[in-house]
Design goal:
The protein is α+β, with helices and mostly antiparallel strands and about 425 residues long. The protein has helices spanning about 1-15, 15-50, 75-80, 90-100, 135, 150-155, 165-170, 215-220, 240-255, 270-310, 315-320, 325-365, 375-405, 405-414, and strands at about 60-65, 105-120, 120-130, 140-145, 160, 180-185, 185-195, 200, 205, 210, 230-235, 265-270. This is Multidrug ABC transporter substrate-binding protein.
Length: about 425
């Protein structure tokens, strides 16, 4: 009996091929969106965490923070990106971090953007001011030359280390070591070129030009503070304990008693990973929820189509009942049609979603991103299950209406 019902459902859909294909396509696009969103979420998570791993698990960061808000809050992020400038991280704080027993090296950094001139060309370049220990803290490899020394930083030497891409833009195939360029009219000598590093926290490190922190503070920006401090621990297993101790020490430097008044935040890489994963998962769930709403709207469309189908096939329903079909037979036939439409759309959506996810993967990898291609079995089963749920939810009422039709009335009206 079940096989006969399926045959009848298939025959009914074949008689309305265009309608069936369009309905399946509508559901398929929604399911494809779910697959793409979940795959993209995993890809973005892998990309961001891969950038975070550039710093290593034994690094710890002290960054500026807007007082009276949580370090992970949107208020802090908005405040720092809309003009709030915190100027309280100073040389004393760098020394405090550097002198902690579990810190192997520490470095204060500043960031800016300036016009750089060389051989008659002027280019806008992102400038990073790093301390001499940055090469060790971030495990920087050099393609040419060397990183600057403590003596050069302390003496405000006008030396520079170029990112790999900056070197190509400024000097091409020429040897950059020993060449001189100008920032704000001041000559800087190239002492090193970094190996290719890619992106870190969405900043293309290869397109940056690095100066000694003190040189950049005094001779370029005219400031006495840093934007953040990055340090490498001797033993990463004591990261949380180290973070707590550094927090108390820097509070003492800043004369802060109330933790709510903190104008800085100490972050371990584990904390940063957890925060980023939560943000990415939250955004992925939000986008999937929006797509699910569109699928529900598509389910309403299926209900309307099934109502139209019932109205168009009253004679068929009446005739089947007249020759012995039960109410359950009629209901299961129409419900089977709804399920075929939605599950068929789900399968189509999974295939489309996988193809789009593959295209995104190849585009991302071609752009040099460390993108993870991931379509989990859970997302496939979830998509198929939700497709079936939509079919049952929005197909059962029209199916019951078809089952309750009076065969005499149905045949008489026709």
């Amino acid at each position: 009996m079940f096989y006969q019902i399926l045959q009848l459902a298939i025959q009914a859909l074949q008689r309305q091929k265009t309608r069936a294909i369009l309905t399946m396509l509508a559901i398929g696009i929604g399911i494809a969106s779910v697959i793409v969103m979940m795959a993209a979420g995993k890809g973005i998570e892998g990309l961001v965490l891969g950038q975070l791993d550039v710093f290593g698990p034994d690094t710890i960061e002290i960054e500026v923070k807007v007082p009276n808000v949580k370090k992970t809050s949107s208020e802090n992020a908005i405040g720092l990106t809309t003009g709030v400038t915190i100027t309280t991280l100073k040389e004393k704080d760098i020394d405090t971090v550097r002198n902690h027993p579990n810190i192997a090296a520490a470095n204060g950094s500043v960031m800016g953007q300036e016009s750089v001139s060389y051989a008659g060309q002027i280019k806008k370049v992102i400038l990073m001011g790093h301390g001499w220990e940055q090469a060790y803290v971030e495990d920087i490899s050099m393609d040419e030359g060397r990183f600057f020394t403590k003596e050069e930083e302390d003496s405000l030497a006008q030396v520079a280390v170029l990112g790999n891409a900056v070197k190509e833009k400024m000097f091409g195939d020429e040897d950059a070591i020993g060449k001189t360029f100008y920032v704000k009219g001041k000559p800087f000598k190239v002492v090193g070129v970094m190996a290719k590093r890619g992106a870190a926290f969405f900043f293309d490190v290869d397109n940056m030009l690095t100066l000694p922190t003190k040189t950049m503070q005094k001779k370029i920006m005219g400031i006495d503070y840093v934007n953040y401090i990055l340090a490498r621990m001797k033993d990463g297993r004591h990261a949380e304990e180290t973070a707590e101790e550094l927090t108390e020490l820097i509070r003492a430097n800043h004369n802060i008693i109330d933790p709510d008044k903190d104008d800085f935040a100490v972050n371990t890489m584990a904390e940063a990973r957890d925060t980023l994963v939560k943000i990415i998962n939250g955004l992925t769930l939000l986008l999937v929820a929006l797509v699910i709403i569109s699928l529900i709207v598509g389910g309403v469309g299926i209900m309307n189509i099934m109502y139209v189908s019932v109205a168009e096939r009253k004679f068929e329903i009446g005739l089947r009942k007249a020759v012995g079909a039960t109410n359950d037979n009629i209901m299961w036939q129409f419900l089977s049609e709804a399920l075929m439409l939605t599950v068929g759309g789900g399968v189509l959506g999974i295939v489309l979603g996988a193809l789009v996810a593959i295209v995104i993967y190849f585009i991302a990898t071609a752009m040099g991103m460390k993108w993870i291609f991931s379509i989990s079995l859970a997302s496939i089963l979830l998509s198929l299950g939700f497709s079936a749920f939509i079919g049952i939810l929005f197909g059962v009422y029209p199916a019951r209406k078809a089952a309750k039709l009076d065969p005499i009335e149905a045949l008489r009206r026709e």
